[in-house]
Each structure stands twice: as structure tokens, then as C-alpha cells.
């Protein structure tokens, strides 16, 4: 009978350690900033979520809640980012309602938020199934369509044109090559106002200018102002990434942080961490030791340990 209370204590202690272990495991797997999202490599200034990458890019760019796609979100919708060129500071989105040679469909307006740091890149818009004649299409009085282009005749050889209610080999005066394209004062490609049903956007003709099934489709965007972010941060971030960290920023103040692991953020890089983050590791192991003696006093010891431990973790975030 005398052994019973100490047996209870052992069970409680065991429970504490198992819980702590599980908690630690879950936190370890759930890195605050990810280096990939689906098949995309995510590097600064792109980020997988809040606090990751550059604060200028969030909340416009983030990894989808399912974690399978990097998305650009604007007032007109969410668009998968299908490629990023870190050297030219450009990226390509593929709007789900965009037409291609394999599938043509009606599209809602496509737009960018004025406050976002992005603008149209050099892709070519083909406005499809417009009310003829497209030579009269204009934005604020200036004609929109490049009438001399063969691109319309080429894309109209795709059998999927029937998806837009057009006959096979439709007359080309219902198609408009709009390049360089500009968004209107609402930041949109206003298909409704232009009286067009859909659009295709071509990033590259891939050395097959007359074979639209070989073209690369997508809307190229670039960061406003050319270079992706400021020189000082770019340099700091580079060192952080080389040391195995992910570049991010501290929410509210937006100051640079290098995210090294789920518990370690630093203003330097992961090799030369600033000292303020070192005691956290030490603190955790000390607390585990001291919690032993606390736990002997009963469950209250455990819960106070647990709460102070959680507080300590969140104090750094
Ligand atoms: C580290 O920074 C990231 C990004 O700001 C944040 O999500 C995370 O909670 C921080 N972690 C710690 C332990 O402070």
C-alpha cells in the first residue's frame, strides 16, 4: 500500500514525458517557413506563409492551405504560380480559366491589386471570341489590337475553339493580340468591357511560332521596381540561405529574421546565431530537469511547468 502513491507519480511522470515528446515532435515537423510548396522551390522574397519571405509579398503570395500550390491571390482570384525565375525577378501564373490550345473557356476578369508589388511582365495576351471587328477595340480611345499578327490565325487552328462557342477555324476578326498589355484603372484586364469571352496568354512560342500546341501559356509578372527587394536585406538573406536558413520577417515590425528551425530565429544566420536565441535550448533542457522535482509535488507542478514551457516558446514568435 505504501508503494501506491509513488507508483502514481511514476505514471504521471511518464505521461508528462510522453506528452512533452509528442508536443516536441509535432512542433519539429511543423516548420514555420517552408522551402518548398508542392513542387515549387520557395526562396526569398517568396514565402510559404505569414512571417516568411519578404513582407512586401505577403499576403499576396503564400502556399495553399493544402500545401500543394504556391498561390498569388488578388481581388479577382487565386492563381497558381507555376514557375519562378529568381535571376530575372519574374514569375508565371496560370489562371485556371485561361484558355490554351487544349482547352478554351470563358474567363472572368484578371487583375492585380494596386497595393501589391507586382506588374505585368512581357507575356502576350490573345483576347478570344470578341465581338467583331476587333480593330475597333480600344481602351480610352487608343486601339488595343495588333492586327498584323499571325498569332490569332495560329491559335484559331486549335479544335478547342468550340469551347468558346466558335466554329472550327473561326474568322480571325474575333481575336485580338494585346501586347504590351496594360490593366485598366481597376487593375484588371476587363474582358467584359472589351466584349471578349476569354483570353490566352503566351509566355513563349518555344521555337514553334505557328504551332500553338507547343507554346508555353501563362501570365508573366514581375516585381515592381525591378530588383526584388533592397540590397541590404538581399545580402543578409543570401548568407541566411547559405547557412541552411529560410529568410523571413518578424510580424508587426517587419524586421529581417533568419528562420533556422522551429525554435530558432536569428537576426544573423544559422551558423553565427545571435546570442539571445541560445539560452532557449539550454532553458528547455534545464526545465525538463527541474520539472522532475516539481512533478513530485503532484500534477500542479507539471501543469505549471507545461505552461511556462509553452509561454517560453511563444515568447520568441
Ligand atoms: C520564427 O519566425 C517565423 C517567421 O516570422 C515565425 O513564424 C516563427 O513563429 C518564429 N519562431 C520563433 C521560435 O520565434
General description of the model:
With 317 residues, the chain is of the alpha+beta class. It has two domains: 4-36 and 226-315, no CATH class; 88-223, no CATH class. The chain contains six helices and 19 strands. The protein has helices at 4-29, 151-155, 191-194, 231-242, 278-296, 299-315; strands at residues 36-37, 40-41, 61-63, 70-74, 77-85, 90-93, 110-111, 118-120, 124-130, 138-139, 142-143, 176-178, 188-189, 196-204, 216-217, 219-223, 246-250, 255-259, 265-266. It has a six-stranded antiparallel sheet, with no helix packed on it. A four-stranded antiparallel sheet has the order 12-9-14-15. The protein is elongated and about 85 Å long. The two termini are 47 Å apart. The protein binds 2-acetamido-2-deoxy-beta-D-glucopyranose. Residues 32-33, 51-52, 248, 250-251, 257, 259, 263, 265, 316-317 line the site of 2-acetamido-2-deoxy-beta-D-glucopyranose (NAG). This is non-specific serine/threonine protein kinase. Residues 33-93 form the Wall-associated receptor kinase galacturonan-binding domain. It is found in: Membrane.
